[in-house]
Amino acid sequence: GDSIVRLPLLVVARRKMSAAMTAMAAAHIRAAFSRRAPRSKEASKASKRNITRPAVSEPSMVSPGVDPSVFTETELTASQMQDLASQRPVANFQSRFQLDEPRKGADILVEALEREGVDCVFAYPGGASMEIHQSLTKSKTGVRNVLCRHEQGEVFAAEGYAKCTGKVGVCIATSGPGATNLVTGLADALLDSVPMVAITGQVPRRMIGTDAFQETPTVEITRQITKHNYLVMDVNDIPRIVREAFFLASSGRPGPVLIDIPKDVQQQMSIPYWGPKVSLNGYLSRLPSPPSHPQMERVLDMIKDAKRPVVYAGGGCLDAAPELKEFIESTGIPITNTLMGLGCYPASDERCLDMLGMHGAVYANYAVDSADLLLAFGVRFDDRVTGKLEAFAARASIVHIDIDPAEIGKNKEAHCPVFSNIKPALRTLNSIIRADKPELDFSEWRADIAKQRAKFPFAYTETDDYIVPQHAVELLCEMTQGKAVVSTGVGQHQMWAAQHYKFDEPRNWLTSGGLGSMGFGLPAAIGAVAARPDAVVIDIDGDGSFVMNIQELATLHAENLPVKMFVLNNQHLGMVVQWEDRFYGANRGHTYLGSPDKDYAVTQDEADIFPDFVKICEGFRVPAERVVRKADLKDAIQRMLDHDGPYLLDVMFPHQEHVLPMVPGGGAFKDTITTGDGRTPETKDMKTL
């Protein structure tokens, strides 16, 4: 029997497609193979005897790995795929141990992380994981641990790290409650396709299944919310399992992978073998090949026949931004982004229609509703985008290109389905366009959309006294030149940030899209600033979301992380209040978050603001201030940006403000609400298109 517990991979059957290697990728692969050295005789004998194996005799024997995208951008044989997937990113690694020196399983685990190129982890210690932390303190490469104050904070921080870099984020927790505190973050990462490896301690092997102290069946709990997971039962499997975990997390459609390691395995002594082959033949065979020229020629033919095409681009395009930009510029087709795809095409370009969906731009939703061709790139037709499925893009032929075949046809049938990574698909399509030089003119179509943009912009009420949140976000965007890395919680503030902060580059927008996890903003910002210390990192948050992981203020001070917190505070659970106003007669169902005895909205006395974030920050030794008047906002933002270190700005605004436009859940474009707020919640004030 196998020495680990394996769970089914969340992938489906592969469609075989033929395409030629690109010269660059082919050269990359040839170089990788030329660097590979043969397996040592000692290692082969040890493998046959199934005993503790000696280390590779020379560090240079391990060749550096290739980017996981190579597996979907080139044609590879099964043998080539296995060989390349088995190679670790770091070559010529110098261990702190002698070649034949026994070491603990925890030391092997940390060295495996080092060999994967990990420079930062987010880990909270406990009884079942303290061996790992002891090994981390002796890291040869100086792997940094950012000590978040809650496991949910660390898993969201690992997500933030991964989202802003595209690299695998790593978090580590102890068994029992430590592991279960990761659950929300794992589900969040799976829905948003975030590459992550989560490592959990487990009770000793002999105690598994005995209801031991801090024992939970972590593998079973996380089965449906991870891309794959492992229970390590043999210390000798650690090198292979870690390599597989990182490859699985970052290849194909990215996602979280969990490794559960019993404490006695962490303590077991062994001499690791660093050259094992990954055992992922089934998974490797299901990765998509590059699309064929005939497939992409069919897409171009559909574009030539179209009068009103529009590109609907999602998170799958984040790593294909240059190819997407070339495609839009060469065709002149207007483009709209999902919440997850913001930044994959410059928002400043006139062809960009901003975000579509429930709280998307009217002109973006109009374009999709009126289109005769919908080019869906790296999207999954989420319900917050489509609304009523039968009415979504009802007039359009649909081209759907996605790396996950399970998404193609799942919600909306595609007339031209293409199972492929977006990058090679667009690269092929662009090359065909360059060679064909088609005469495409969609200026009349873009002018039609421009009329809708002029008629229904992202509008809000201008005021002289109190602060309007939309204006606050626009001002923040202006003062940072749209170049900050922005994280958010979930709610009204998230939508206002998506609408009014304009992103021209990918991976500067970090938000919880699919799961909608409140409390995501601050920890994600921590992960981002740890990954990109030279960037301005701002958490645009709401008072409800911010409280959910407010303990991470301690992490900011202890780690000296210069996260700027821009808290839009209305003393309410704003998005639910908006739905109450619109659909429940403004009846409050436990959505007021302020003090029960004194309501700031009534008294307008700052002493009645509850909770007092400024005083809380003082306890965590994080500078903070509050702003309540529009005239004071700009100077307050400037002080926040100028401060060398973490800083919180508490921005007060009325709870009656609503996010508009709004397509009611399950509604269609014609149902879009464009007027009204909490001051006038009557049905007659909710004008639709």
Key descriptive features of the protein:
single chain, about 700 residues, alpha/beta, 7-stranded mixed sheet, 6-stranded parallel sheet, 28 helices, disordered N terminus
Shape, please? globular
Query: How much helix, percentage-wise, in residues?
Result: 25-40%
The average pLDDT value, as a whole number, equals 91
Which stretches are low in confidence, meaning pLDDT under 50 for 5 or more residues running?
Answer: 1-62
- The Rg value, from CA coordinates, equals 26 Å
Distance between the termini: 63 Å
Number of beta-strand segments:
21
Structural class: alpha/beta
Largest sheet: 7 strands, mixed
Order of the strands making up the biggest sheet? 1-7-8-6-5-3-4
Please, could you describe this protein's structure?
The protein is of the alpha/beta class and 689 residues long. Helices cover 36% and strands 13% of the residues. The protein is built from 28 helices and 21 strands. The strands form four sheets. A seven-stranded mixed beta sheet has the order 1-7-8-6-5-3-4, with helices on both faces. Strands 12-11-10-13-14-15 form a six-stranded parallel beta sheet, with helices on both faces. The protein has a six-stranded parallel beta sheet with strand order 17-16-18-19-21-20, sandwiched between helices. The chain is globular, with a radius of gyration of 26 Å. The N and C termini lie far apart (63 Å). The model is unreliable at 1-62 (pLDDT under 50).
